[in-house]
Amino acid sequence: MSFLDNLENQLNALxxxxxxDSGWRQKQEDERRRSLAVRPWAEQLKNSDYTKxxxxxxxxxxxxxxxxxxxxxxxxxxxLEARGRRLELRPTAPGIxxxxxxxxxxxxxxPVDLNGExxxxxxxxLG
Length: 127
Hints:
This protein has 127 residues and is of the alpha+beta class. It has one domain (3-126). Helix content is 54%, strand content 24%. It has helices at residues 3-20, 22-47, 49-64, 118-126; strands at residues 70-74, 77-82, 85-91, 96-101, 107-112. A five-stranded antiparallel β-sheet has the order 1-2-3-4-5. The protein is elongated and about 70 Å long. The relative contact order is 0.12.
């Protein structure tokens, strides 16, 4: 038997062992439940007027402070980055949470009201 055949057999055996592991199935089920709980909030974040206003306000705010604010979607999370600081809007089961990340590693979180104004959030982030 060649080295590659032996390696393939060992990998197949490991995969079968993982599939039999009940902890693995439980983790998959927990992840599925979490994903289903987050889905409505993720849809609201992607399609809300709040997000559209946030994009507009971020462009104006960045122009005012002479800084480019980078915006990106990562799966369900909305990430804004400027001057080494990050603001991430994350949908969770209870609602949307803003995570403020500083260059020194400090983080702070607060809930986001999609019916509110995004300017206050930007002011707290880059103020």
